[in-house]
């Protein structure tokens, strides 16, 4: 957030949100900042961070104080380092093996205390997995994994280490792996790009990688209510294209002091009493979030497009909105990108549309790639594929 990025609609600041957790005070501060310093648009990213848009090129100084006051900038030196993901349910979901809110906070604190991690690239990412696998689709560099009974393991680039310990020991191993990466990285941005990769980093920690096994199925969840393990409820709503705005942020702040963002461009309110769910659902619907489990927006994403990016070759957001009207929630996840950089596309996305040049649109579906001349034809092709 202190090194702004130029975009088509002004400059933008990325606000790291470890574990996706936002307090009511943080939501209100973001609403005010986006109105007074930006153009009122706030993006929810594929890493469950936020982007403030339409800023002036010198806005970083004005951002720092209000964000620091609500806990969103606890360390200027580690601004880019605090990429820590977790399930928005964080141990509350059926199938979770342990609570991990405290583990997220501990990892964040240890990252900020590690002087050698000042130079950790902004793309390097941590995941705290409560045992459900939520967030694994991002392809984290280092994962702290709940094993149950207060025990945790660590994985490097998705490969488990022959290690198990308590939360503090696991966090120490995770931070140590990041420090080794910084020492070895050269020009690498991700752990997988370092010479020797995960094997070498584990060896330098005095550990070994465990034999590869089939990955556990990730337990996903979409809009709607989930009963937590403690009998209370969590309510999730989808923000189409990850778009937030000041009025919505204020509405969320009025509903909860603990709002969770996710990599699926959703917001979750946790620890609700069952008798409060209906009124909360109505409030989220009034705030224009998606709560319908059959919505075509589920699993559908797009990059910033021509409105927000100078590299964009087409208005893919409008095309995605048209697509949402005819697409089923049960269709494979898909992403629409306005240029070959494919910003926002997650690894392994089964359906992807990318504009290569003015009359060349690449469509990937079921591992097959086809080229068509327009976004309209791309949409028609996807409709035909889904009808088979």
Major sheet strand order: 1-2-5-4-13
Contiguous helical run count: 9
Radius of gyration, CA atoms, in whole angstroms:
21 Å
**What is the CATH first-level class name of the domain at 94-220?**
Alpha Beta
Calculate the terminal CA-CA distance, rounded to whole Å: 46 Å
Helix content bin: 25-40%
Topology, element by element:
Layout: E1 5-7, E2 10-15, E3 21-22, H1 24-36, E4 42-44, E5 50-55, H2 60-69, E6 84-86, H3 101-113, E7 126-129, E8 142-148, E9 151-156, E10 159-160, H4 167-184, H5 197-204, E11 224-227, E12 233-238, E13 243-244, H6 246-255, E14 259-261, E15 266-272, H7 277-286, E16 300-302, H8 316-326, E17 334-337, E18 351-357, E19 360-365, E20 368-372, H9 375-387
Helix pairs in contact: 1-6, 3-4, 8-9
Sum up the structure in keywords:
27% helix; 23% strand; 5-stranded antiparallel sheet; single chain; alpha+beta; 388 residues; Sulfite Reductase Hemoprotein, domain 1; 20 strands
